[in-house]
Amino acid sequence: MASAPTYTPIATITASGSTTSVTFSSIPQTYTDLVIAGAFYETSSSNTSLQFNGDTGSNYSSTTILGNGSSASSARVSNFPCIFWDRQGNATGYGTGVAHIMNYTNTTTYKTALLRYGYAGTWVEADVGSWHNTSAITSITVGVVSGSGNLASGSTYTLYGILAA
Amino acid sequence: MILPGIFASQMSGHLGGNFTSIATVTLSSTQSSITFSAIPNTYTDLEIRTLGRTVYAANSNSNVSIFYNGDTTATNYYSHYLYGTGSAAGAAANNSALYSFQTPDDSVTTNVFGAAISVVKDYANPNKNTTLRSLSGYDGNGSGIIAFTSTGWTNTTPVNSLTITAQDGSWKAGTTISLYGVK
Which residue of B has its CA nearest to A67? Predict the structure, then answer.
C-alpha cells in the first residue's frame, strides 16, 4: 500500500471587530477533503454556518442532533441558505468545533459536510449538511448568515487539506 | 484564550507526518463490499473516510458494517448508536447485526452521497478487543440522518484487513473510501 503524510494547514482566519463572516478563498484543488477547526461564538444567540462559492441562495439543507444536558433532540432545515455548524446559537463564550467537507473537488455529487460543535456550559451538537450543487468548492464562508449579530472578535478558524492516496 | 490542544482534540488525527494516507478505493461500478488488506501495523489508529451511497432503493438509510480480518460473523461484533432523524433523537444497540455507520441508498435525492468518518482505535494491540467509533450521515433535503456509533469486535487479534459492506444492496459507482494511519 502506498503511504504519504497529509493533513496540511492551508490558512487561519481570526475574526476581529464587527464581522459577520470570514471567507477562505482560492482554496487549492489539490486535496481530497477539507477540515475546518474553529474556536468561536457569536455576539447574539444566532448561528454560525457555512456557505460555499459565495452561494447565498436556498440551496442547502442540514440535519442536527443536539444534547443540552437533560435531553437529546433532532431537527432539520431544507432549502435553506446555509449549513448549520452551531445551530443552537452561542453568545456566551468560546465553543469548539470541527467541520469536514468531503471530496470537495468532485463535480458529480452534491457536497456533504459533517460538523460538530459544543459549548461545555450548555450543549453539544453534530450536523450533516448538503450543498445542492455539483461544483467543486473554491471558497468557504463561515459566519452568521441566517440571523443577526456578528462573529465574536477573536473567533478563529483554521482550514486543513487531507490528500488521499 | 484559545488552546491548540482544544483544536487537536476535535480533529480526526494529528498534523504533519502523524496522519498518513494508506490507500483509497473509488468505485467505477457497483460493488458489494470494499476491502483494505495487508494494512501496516505501524500506526496507532486507523481512520476510514467515506463518501458513499448504495444502489438499494427502499429504506433511505443503509447500515454499513466494517468487518475485521475477514470475520463476517455479525454476532462476533456489537454496536451502540445515537442518531437524529431530523425530527427525533434516538438510541439503540445491536449484537446480531453490525452497524458501523449509515449511508444513503438510491431512494434519496440524486447526487446526495453520505459522509462517514470512522476511527479504529489501537488496532494493532493484541490485548484489547477492537473498538471503532463513527460519525456519519447525509441530508437529502427533506430526509436524512446523523449518527454516532461505537462498535466492538470480541477478538483481540490485531487488525490487518477491513471489509466495508453495505447491508442493503451494493455500493454505488462513485463511492470513495480512503484509509489513513494515525500515530
Answer: B89
